């Protein structure tokens, strides 16, 4: 099975960057995806991007982005016990105003799906 997510939406809070104990840079941000059906609500999706390109840190709320990655649920200890968070771990992304880069990001997702052995079984049905 493949865990592939594609999101296109607007940054809803300023990206925050921090250094992990491993030395990697982690950038976290939220993207709001508009409702696609009448009467539905927009959805806010938390993103985690290890080694994000520098341009990500310059994004302001309202900036459009296209990202691909995978859904992850992680568990951690907090003051009031065990907590969990579901987020998208970003693998590739592009500013929404750069169509060619957005197309390249989407192509990578399609290629990831096509490499999945389960995809072949679905196509045969």
Give a written overview of the molecule.
There is one protein chain. With 125 residues, the chain is α+β, with helices and mostly antiparallel strands. The protein has a single domain (5-124), classed as OB fold (Dihydrolipoamide Acetyltransferase, E2P). Helix content is 20%, strand content 46%. It contains two helices and six strands. The chain has helices at residues 99-115, 117-124, and strands at residues 5-11, 16-19, 25-33, 43-50, 64-78, 81-95. Strands 1-3-4-6-5 form a five-stranded mixed barrel. Strand 2 (16-19) and strand 3 form a beta hairpin. The longest helix is centred in the C-terminal third of the chain and has 17 residues, at 99-115. The radius of gyration is 16 Å and the shape is globular. The model has no long low-confidence stretch (mean pLDDT 90).
Task: Lay out the secondary structure.
Elements: E1 5-11, E2 16-19, E3 25-33, E4 43-50, E5 64-78, E6 81-95, H1 99-115, H2 117-124
Parallel strand pairs: 4-6
Antiparallel strand pairs: 1-3, 1-5, 2-3, 3-4, 5-6
